[in-house]
Every structure is written in C-alpha cells, then in structure tokens.
Write a structure and sequence with these properties.
The protein has 347 residues and is an alpha+beta fold. Helix content is 40%, strand content 28%.
Length: 347
C-alpha cells in the first residue's frame, strides 16, 4: 500500500511536455512518452445562466465541428500556430492535464511547451499564462524548429549545419541549427490549414460545389499530391451545389488536388529558398552534404520531398514518424535538463 502511494505521488509530480499545435495537441509525461494525441478542438455549451461549460475536448469535439446547434460552439482555440482564444486554450490545457490523472490536477508539474518561431512577447505570455493557470509551477517555451530538429534525430549540438522544415497545421517552421541553437529561422502562416482552404476554394470554383474544411482535409490526406502521379487517384466528394442549392457529388482526382494546393506549396518553397539564401557559407556546405529534413503532417503529402528538392536543388528527406517529431523533441528537451537550458527559454 505504501509503495502504491509513493508511485502515485511520483506520477502526480511528473513534468510534462506539450506540443500545442493548431491541428493537434500532444502531451508527453516524463518517463512515459506520449500519453495524449488529440485534435486541438473544444466544444463549449452555454448553460441556462449564460455561462460556458466544456462539453467535449479533442477527438469528440472535432466530430462536432460544423454540426453543432446554436447553444454549442466547436472552437479551435489555436489559429496559425498561436492562441486565438485565450480562455478556451486554457480550458483545453487544463482538461488534458487532468485527463492524464483521471480527472484530477497534477501536483504543480513543470511544463515545457513547443511554440512557433518568432512569437511576440504578448503571444508567449498568453501561452505561458494558460499553462500556469492550468496548474503548472513553471513553464518553459521551446521554439518549434529546434524541437522538430531534436525529434528528427538531428545532431543539433554539433558544429554542423542542419536544416529542418516542419509543415504543421497552422505554420511552416524552417530552421538551421548548429551548436545547440537556431542560427536562422523562419515561420510562415502557410501550412495544413491553408492547404485545406485552398482545396475548398478550388472545388467551389471548378465544380461549383461547397465543401467544408473537414472534407477538404480528407481529400488532402486520401488523394493529395505535390507532384504529378503516373496513375491519378480518384474519389467522389459530396457537398452542396452553389448554383442550384441541392446536395450533389462529383468525382475529383489527385491532379485536381495538386492544382489546388500548388500556390501554398510554392509559398513554402519560397520561404525555404529565403532561409537558404541567408545561411552562412560554412553551414550551407553542411546542408548541401546532409540535405533537408521534413517533419510535421505536411511531410506526409505524396511527393512533397521531391517537390521541395526540385525547387531548391538539394536532397530532401522525410523524418521517421514526422507527425511526432516536434512532440518527441519537446519531450527530449524535458528529459535532459541541460538540453532544456540550451534550447528553451523561460519568461
């Protein structure tokens, strides 16, 4: 019994690493790995007294997006990689922290949170206060390109240039690392969400069909491609005909999706070129030799590695488990105190 109590107390005081993403939030418990991987969505119900109450968070809440009655709101509190709704973000963080411990607060954990490169002081403060209000005793912020590089297994402490491109939900983060720091970084608010929006717009213009973001995301995953395929993939998509107003369906192929997402993909390629142009010659030589590593959900788009390689004339590789790279890197920074002190900052 005493041993069980000690184990429970040790778990309650475990520190956490949080990848607070626009699309998904991942939470790691020190020594246990990833324990939560759910959509960054909160469903809120307004009660009869006009107060907001959490109805659902994560996967269950995402299922409600676009389907809720007037008394319920399904909210994505993160937009373009930053907090768009402070109160809802705080609710979401607190909910996930409690979920780890069966509905109870953890005992003042130390938390390291991954954030996009170049957040303003106000945005960093908002992230930090959300975690503090959710029960953290101290909060460290680590920038996403560094977390992605660590999670992808790049030797960030060595005096060599490594270049990582993390294509997430709200932002694409590009960073050159060397000697434990970011030499050059760039963050653009063009990533998965913008790809989805481009698909919605394309289908509307080309097929006169209105579809939602969730359907567009499904098309991106199922048949999306950054390059022409020898054998185009096809699927049927349902929506509302914007001319006649009736429900309708059309066949869409992977070439349609490639055309739809080409403009935002070109923006990502241009941002990558910009970083390469600013990279010091000695580090540039390392990148030519080592290539570029892709992480994030965008790395799973068919042919994205070849698309970017053709754009910058350098080898491009997709990291192992690209969806988990940022979370794993954030967790590794938490596990290694010296690495945390080198790569993270505390406000």
């Amino acid at each position: 019994m005493l041993g069980t109590f000690k184990n429970m107390f040790g778990f309650l005081s475990k520190d956490l690493a949080i990848d607070l993403g626009t699309a998904n939030t991942l939470v790691l418990v020190k020594g246990k790995g990833i324990v939560i991987n759910e959509p960054s969505v909160v469903a809120i119900k307004v009660n009869k007294f006009g107060r907001e109450e959490i109805l659902a968070v994560g996967k269950e809440a995402k299922e409600m997006v676009g389907k809720t009655p007037g008394s319920i709101k399904a909210i994505r509190p993160m937009k373009d990689g930053v907090i768009a709704d402070f109160n809802t973000t705080e609710m979401m963080i607190e909910y996930f922290i409690k979920k780890i411990n069966g509905g109870k607060k953890l005992s003042s954990p130390r938390i390291v949170i991954c954030v996009p490169y170049g957040l303003t002081q106000v945005e960093r403060k908002a992230v930090r206060e959300s975690a503090l209000n959710a029960g953290a005793r101290s909060v460290y912020l680590i920038e996403e390109p560094m977390a992605a590089a660590i999670g992808a297994g790049l030797p960030v402490r060595e005096p060599n240039g490594n270049l990582v491109v993390d294509i997430g939900g709200g932002t694409t983060e590009i960073g050159v690392t060397s000697l434990g720091g970011l030499v050059i970084s760039k963050s653009i608010r063009v990533a998965g969400d913008k790809l989805d929006a481009a698909i919605v717009d394309y289908v509307k213009k080309k097929f006169n069909l209105l579809i939602g973001d969730k359907v567009a995301e499904g098309l991106k995953i199922d048949i999306g491609t950054a390059i022409k395929l020898d054998e185009p993939l096809k699927t049927t998509v349902k929506g509302r005909d914007q001319v006649e107003g009736i429900l309708s369906s059309v066949e869409i192929n992977s070439e349609n999706i490639r055309e739809a997402i080409l403009p935002p993909l070109n923006q990502i390629a241009e941002a990558l070129k910009s970083v390469l142009e600013q990279t010091p010659p000695d580090l540039a030589g390392d990148i030519v030799e080592n290539g570029i590593v892709l992480t994030g959900g965008g790395a799973l788009i068919r042919g994205i590695d070849k698309f970017l390689s053709d754009a910058v004339k350098l080898p491009v590789y997709i990291a192992d488990e690209p969806l988990l790279a940022v979370a794993k890197g954030t967790g590794e920074a938490l596990d290694q105190i010296d690495l945390l002190q080198e790569t993270a900052y505390e406000d």
